[in-house]
Specification:
The complex is a heterotetramer, with one copy of chain A (329 residues), two copies of chain B (329 residues) and one copy of chain C (499 residues). Chain A has 329 residues and is α/β, with parallel strands linked by helices. Chain A has helices spanning 29-45, 58-70, 83-95, 119-134, 149-164, 181-195, 207-219, 235-241, 256-272, 289-294, 300-306, 308-311; strands spanning 17-23, 47-53, 75-79, 100-103, 114-117, 138-143, 168-174, 201-204, 227-231, 248-253, 279-282, 285-288. In chain A, the strands form two sheets. Chain A has a six-stranded parallel beta sheet with strand order 2-1-3-4-5-11, with helices on both faces. Chain C has 499 residues and is an alpha/beta fold. A six-stranded mixed beta sheet of chain C has the order 6-7-8-3-9-10, with helices on both faces. In chain C, a hairpin with a 2-residue loop joins β1 and β2. The N and C termini of chain C lie far apart (47 Å). The chains are: A alpha/beta (329), B mainly alpha (329), C alpha/beta (499). Chains A and B meet through α1, β7, α6, α7 and α8 of A and α2, α10 and α12 of B. The structure holds adenosine-5'-triphosphate (2 copies) and magnesium ion (2 copies). One adenosine-5'-triphosphate binds at residues 147, 149-151, 273, 292, 294-300, 341, 458 of chain C.
């Protein structure tokens, strides 16, 4: 391989580098964009990225770590997972001399840098927007599922907000992960709407759930009466938000592509033997429909262009690490 | 007494259903509103359509495990045609139906010509299709603005007419998918109940050899049953695509079990104890109604599956447990 | 000789929904005797023995063994008490997917005393021992049960019942699908068992068998006790007790076939698996009997005429035109109908109604652009129920709930429903009682004018009752044919069995 | 020629399997390493164990759709016992197995006594259990430190001995779950092949009535088959809990289909064309091997299902398509 200019070994071309990306979930736009970002960064670094994943199969995820160890890859990125399940395999990988970085899963190992999107903040940003829009008084339908780590973290913000603003009331909680997620949730939300006509806002801290809420509101023709607050963003989400009559008013998000890229950079640094901070937190941003409409943003590309800070998370940048110049992140 | 038992067997399920209908409405009046009733119907259309398809294969004593993934691949195919290829929505519909027909045909040929047991053949196809649907878009969901392999953005859009299929309403009340569902259900009911084709399908399920010796080309009928199943599944897929408005890769996974459940519950309706179109429709509507009603009563989502199970088992005991006759010659 | 009865069944009654299958039937069985039970189709014979062997635990009445009241909850209980049964339907007795040996030694395999670890060798040894009782030890013990002949399956079920010497042996129409030669083996075995003290309950519609082997005959009539008959037995008396008076002779159509039309001609027809070409002419209004031992190739000939098998050579000429049949559908279109042998496997669709079973091959006729015409269907079904004397509630009863003989009548009715050129009946009287047989024969005779009938059987008497002419098939070769009126039975039998 | 066909039918599947084994190893040497082979086995243990269970029900011509959810509820039950109730892990194991036995018993009774068709009865149970498992923890995953209803934190922990069942290794190489799997497989194989119980189960599948008339208490055997299936599923669930170390609510979802697929593929192994323990084991190992090998070759995850499907269908055509025997008379 032709090495990178000024790069430390083994990125100087002395070796073909293979990195395993081991995932808990493979589906959904967030996951796909994360992967795309990781892939682009890996290509730029000359890393062969091997993606392991079987949708929502925790024990398979643990197995994949061992498989990666067997393959003697140069580094492992663990993307989501249960910390109880993954901490031992991860420790075993470290023992086998393979560096590991983790995204959104706490592997409880000092040798493993933790990359995380700040889920609590993510939830908080969206909720703060709600509090502002409603002057601290809203009847909220909460659409979420317990037991999913990022959602549980976002739930903490919701509990905090409810305590802080007694005017914000949880009228009902619903939500399902059954697929097709959007339409299944739409069906539930429609039923909720009829039973609780006093709801005037929805908090759905995951965009797939949010899409379900929006679909329900449209089908129940209540899109002008109720506002929706979510987390995460994607081209499809933007297209919905900028519609004239969209009830979807705000979403808090990080750029999954950037996180993917940061994850790859982190593992590359570990492989090169360069110190990486223990905790790398990706800050989220709030996007409101009004803003998006005003700036004529129609898709992720334009979003990245017009919000450079969202576009490129300046973490773990080194002169020898090339980054994508087309503005993917 | 005997009459009572016969009555219970025949109407037991419907009585349970009517009872829940009453109970939900009394506890929550908006349950009975027209818009909610249509919302229940809308919620079950896709699953219901697939259940009709699977009924045809159950009747010939076969099984089609690939219906869910057939619907899913049609979601992807129609999105691909409209969004990536930027073709007219008519093509999207035609190509999707073609997919359904083709899959059904292959299933039929595998079962009839290669003599592979139905469960096995359709399971193989299920995996195959599940994989195939991901390939054109490299595992990504398909939506306008998505990044294509050549680096450009997909410019095609879901046609308004297409979306109308999933989201439109007649008289501002009756959702179009519900109409499609109803039409399909009536056609299926009519064919199975009042035509020679239906009679032959049932007879094949009872004793294939006897039907062969009555001069019927049994193979052709069996293949036809799978083609019908595939085609109906593709119609379900088209409606699903039109409802969610994008090529969501996760859309197919939950459909299979629910459709099969509906068709199986259908055995108990009117105590017929065999697969039948009316029963399948009632079965899925029943499940949809339970889900809707329980959500309205704010029962937590995690109790709903449980209640669904309890009611299902109770209805089954009613229908099957009471009738002790056992054909024996 | 006031012996004490071994088993007494007192006041047995049983209902199936609206059908009172048995009401207040009592019989006694002694050791060392062959007790035959007769009754018309649907009289309740099979039901009676299913109660006796624990298959239907919910019945009214009492069963005593050696004067002790017993109540069987399952076939296992009856088996433990020494009651062994060979059921009417062979399919009920054999286990698919298992080898011949395993089927023979089934009881051994499943008995509680059986060794826990399955010993294939030992099972095979005892299977051969069991097979010897019915003279079928020549069977390949490792063969899959699906690959052997129907008659051999029947012999297996009988042999199995004899494996452990029973107190009471029940045989429900055991000879309906085996040949006379095999039946002889069976009877010899029964005599031997009788000498050893076994009580035997024998059910059959072959009255000459009944006459030959029974010590006593019990009659069931419409689910009720119909009397007892003692030696010496007279067939006509048995018939009288079973069904009342019936006409004994069926007028044969005029003898000469000069003014008759030739309907079907087989010209040098070479049937699969046979080397000898077959020549046969059947004229209108003729009923021709085809007789031969089991395995003579009768069914294969029938199947060739029905388009199931391709002839290897020769011609089938129908109404003067040579026809080539690609499939069954074409045969039916050409007015060739066939009642196949072995109704359970080949003909009945158990859950469906009598009507649907009868109409099945002619759905095109009973529908318009695919939509069925219910009135005509019902009319057709009712007509055939009436003509065939099918005992049932109505045309909606499922065929599976009928008695064996009545199921067979439905199957025959199916193929007589519509007009035809020729109807082939392959063993049409399996399990059909004597009266119904007569009824069917009369119906055939009366309705065979411009058409003809080819009736296949391995029983001479069945054919003599109705046929104008009997053709002997032996190993695929026609050895001779003779007008029924001129038949010399001994000569016929020698032709049939000639090696 | 005929011999060749017979050979192909008998060994076709195994040849395909050996071929893929060779191909993977040649393309990626580490595929053949001991540790990787055990990693493949480890990956399929849970599914494999369930496949053994479902084999028992398939043999009696039944079906158990509830195995996946039975395993899942055992995951939740053992977590609940250890984490929430803070009891000894022995109780966790006992209670889980009790759950399995009970579920199997109910299934058996529903099928045998209430005469509900197998698919229907176990489907109802599946829903019921799926719901039930969520109730004690109100839909939350169970892990140390979780918030209980009374406001305190759960203090129990997964016992080390318990975790060892899922994560330990013998001789530092052979994973404990693989040993459990192997032992169960051997026992099942022995019972089905060499004992009278096995014969009786097969005989029941061949002709229930004949076996009943031969004096066997068929009902008891049928119930036993479901109890075995449930019990084996619960063992699978215990191992799963020990592997993921947490009462994860999503854990059961993919298990059913994979286990059924394995058992069905088993029909093709050695051309026996009927459910058999050896076949089921080979079937799941085959699927695991494909997944492992294809990931090693960095085939994207979205092509893997496709390839799995293709190979499955090919193997089936091999086994069933070649044997033309169809008693036509
Ligand atoms: N499982 C059943 N369900 C409903 N009706 C039944 C059932 N089994 C038998 N019957 C009815 O009970 C009556 C007696 O039937 P059974 O089989 O005992 O007659 P059989 O004397 O053995 O006649 P065959 O000589 O035709 O075998 C018939 O009217 C039959 O239709
Ligand atoms: N399923 C089968 N498997 C193997 N051989 C068969 C099978 N069926 C028929 N045969 C063979 O074909 C030959 C002709 O059988 P066929 O059934 O035509 O005889 P048949 O005269 O009709 O006898 P049956 O009275 O048993 O119906 C016999 O020698 C028999 O061994
Ligand atoms: Mg009978
Ligand atoms: Mg024959």
């Amino acid at each position: 391989a032709t090495g990178l200019k000024g790069a430390p070994a083994p990125f100087d071309g002395s070796k073909k580098i293979r990195v395993a990306l081991i995932r808990q979930m493979t589906e959904g736009e967030f996951m796909q964009t994360y992967r795309a970002g990781a892939q682009v960064q890996a290509n730029l670094l000359g890393i062969k990225l091997i993606v392991f994943g079987k949708s929502m199969d925790n024990q398979a995820e643990a197995n994949f770590v061992y498989q990666a160890i067997n393959m003697k890859v140069d580094g492992i990125i663990i993307d989501h997972g249960l910390s109880e399940t993954m901490k031992k395999p991860a420790a075993d990988a470290i023992k086998a001399g393979i560096p590991v970085v983790a995204f959104d899963v706490d592997l409880k190992n000092p040798a493993i840098p933790q990359i995380a999107q700040d889920d609590e903040l993510l939830g908080m940003l969206a909720l703060k927007a709600m509090v502002k829009d409603f002057n601290g008084k809203a009847n909220v339908g909460y659409v979420s599922i317990a037991g999913i780590l990022p959602l549980d973290k976002r739930d903490k913000s919701w509990q905090k907000i409810k305590k802080e603003y007694p005017g914000i009331k949880e009228i009902v909680k619903t939500g399902t992960l059954e697929s097709p997620i959007a339409s299944k949730n739409a069906d539930q939300v429609k039923a909720v709407l009829l039973a609780h006509p006093n709801i005037n806002a929805f908090f759905a801290p995951y965009d797939e759930l949010g899409k379900g809420v929006v679909q329900a509101l449209r089908e129940a023709r209540k899109q002008d009466k109720i506002k929706v607050y979510t987390a995460d963003i994607s081209t499809q989400d933007i297209r919905e938000m900028i519609k004239k009559d969209s009830p979807w008013v705000a979403t808090a998000a990080t750029n999954p592509a950037s996180i993917g890229a940061v994850s790859v950079r982190a593992i590359a640094l570990k492989i090169a033997g360069i110190k990486v901070p223990k905790n790398i937190l990706i800050p989220p941003m709030l996007f409101t429909a009004k803003e998006l409409r005003k700036m004529k943003i129609k898709n992720m590309n334009e979003l990245r262009k017009k919000f450079p800070s969202f576009n490129s998370v300046d973490l773990l940048m080194y002169p020898w690490i090339p980054v994508d110049k087309k503005g993917l992140f | 007494m005997e009459k009572f038992v016969a009555f219970a067997i025949k109407y037991g399920f419907l009585i349970v259903m009517a009872g829940s209908f009453l109970a939900f409405g009394l506890l929550e009046h908006s349950f009975w509103s027209w818009s909610n009733l249509f919302s229940i119907l809308l919620g079950v259309t896709i699953v219901g359509i697939l259940a009709i398809g699977v009924t045809f294969t159950l009747i010939i004593d076969g099984f089609d495990l690939s219906i869910g993934s057939t619907a899913a691949i049609c979601v992807m195919a129609s999105s691909y045609v409209m969004v990536v290829l930027d073709l007219n929505y008519i093509f999207a519909i035609l190509i999707s139906i073609l997919c359904g027909v083709l899959i059904g045909l292959i299933n039929g040929l595998l079962i009839v010509k290669a003599k592979i047991p139905d469960l096995l053949a359709t399971l193989g196809m299920m995996f195959l299709i599940q994989g195939l649907q991901l390939i054109p878009s490299a595992g990504m969901s398909i939506g306008t603005g998505m990044m294509l392999a050549n680096g450009t953005e997909a410019k095609g859009e879901f046609a308004q007419q297409f979306l109308y299929l999933g989201q439109g309403r007649l008289f501002n009340l009756i959702p179009i998918p519900v109409i499609v569902f109803a039409v399909l259900a009536i056609i299926a009911y009519f064919i199975l109940q009042y035509t020679k084709w239906g009679r032959i399908l049932y007879a094949i399920g009872g004793n294939e050899k006897a039907v062969k010796l009555a001069g019927v080309n049994v193979e052709r009928y069996k293949i036809a049953a799978y083609v019908i199943s595939g085609t109906i599944a593709s119609i379900g897929g088209i409606l699903l695509a039109a409802r969610i408005g994008r090529g969501d890769v996760t859309s197919g996974s939950g459909l299979l079990l629910d459709a099969v459940a509906g068709a199986l519950i259908g055995f108990a309706v009117l105590g017929v104890k065999k697969p039948n179109a009316l029963g399948s429709v009632v079965g899925v509507v029943f499940m949809g109604m339970l889900l809707n009603g329980l959500t309205m009563l704010s029962l937590p989502y995690y109790t709903q599956d449980f209640i669904k199970g309890i009611v299902l088992v109770a209805a089954l005991i009613f229908t099957f447990g009471l009738s002790k006759s056992d054909l024996s010659s | 000789m006031q012996k004490k009865p071994l088993i007494r069944a007192v006041g047995i009654s049983k209902r199936f929904g609206a059908t009172q299958a048995l009401s207040d039937v009592s019989f006694e069985f002694y050791d060392s005797e062959i007790f035959s039970m007769v009754g018309a189709n649907g009289a309740g014979k099979s039901t009676f023995i299913k109660i006796l062997c624990g298959f239907y635990p919910d019945y009214e009445g009492q069963i005593y063994i050696n004067d002790k009241l017993v109540k069987f909850e399952s076939p296992r209980d009856a088996y433990e008490a020494g009651i062994q049964v060979v059921h009417q339907s062979i399919e009920q007795g054999i286990v698919q997917n298992m080898s011949v040996a395993e089927n023979l030694a089934l009881e051994q395999i499943v008995s509680p005393e059986a060794s826990f670890v399955y010993d294939e060798k030992k099972i095979e040894e005892s299977a051969i021992k069991i097979a010897k009782k019915m003279g079928i030890e020549y069977l390949d013990m490792k063969a899959n049960i699906q690959d052997i002949k129907q008659s051999e399956k029947q012999m297996i079920t009988i042999a199995r019942a004899l494996a452990k010497k029973p107190k009471l042996l029940i045989l429900d129409e055991p000879t309906s699908s085996i040949s006379e030669k095999e039946a002889e083996v069976l009877f010899e075995t029964l005599y031997k068992l009788k000498d050893e003290g076994v009580s035997i309950l024998y059910i059959s519609h072959y009255l000459h068998e009944i006459k030959k082997i029974s010590d006593r005959v019990g009659v069931i009539r419409d689910g009720k006790f119909g009397g007892l008959l003692y030696q010496p037995l007279v067939v006509s008396k048995i018939v009288q007790a079973m069904v009342g008076d019936i006409e004994t002779s069926i007028s044969s159509n005029s003898e000469d076939s000069k003014d008759k039309k030739l309907i079907i001609e087989l010209k040098d027809l070479l049937v699969e698996g046979s080397q000898t070409p077959i020549n046969l002419k059947i004229y209108s209004s003729q009923i021709i009997g085809l007789i031969g031992l089991i395995g003579a190739g009768k069914t294969e000939l029938a199947e060739t005429l029905f388009g199931i098998r391709k002839p290897l050579g020769g011609e089938i000429i129908l109404n003067g035109k040579s026809i080539v049949l690609q499939n069954i559908h074409e045969a039916i279109k050409n007015g060739i109908h066939m009642v196949p042998e072995n109704r359970t496997v080949n003909a009945i669709i158990p859950q469906e109604s009598i009507k649907d079973n009868i109409i099945l091959p002619f759905l095109d006729f009973f529908s318009k652009r695919g939509v069925l015409k219910p009135d005509q269907e019902i009319e057709g079904a009712d007509r055939m129920i009436e003509n065939m004397g099918i005992k049932c509630e109505n045309y909606l009863s499922s065929i599976g709930s009928l008695s064996g003989g009545n199921q067979q009548k439905v199957v025959v009715a199916r193929w007589l429903l519509m007009s035809h050129n020729i109807v082939i009946l392959d063993e049409p009287f399996q399990g059909v009682d004597i009266k119904s047989r007569k009824d069917i024969n009369v119906y055939l005779r009366e309705n065979t004018r411009d058409s003809c009938v080819l009736m296949i059987s391995s029983d001479v008497d069945e054919l003599m009752d109705v046929c104008d002419k009997i053709v002997v098939l032996n190993k695929g070769k026609i050895l001779g044919e003779e007008k029924t009126s001129l038949i010399n039975k001994d000569k016929l039998l020698s032709l049939i069995t000639q090696e």
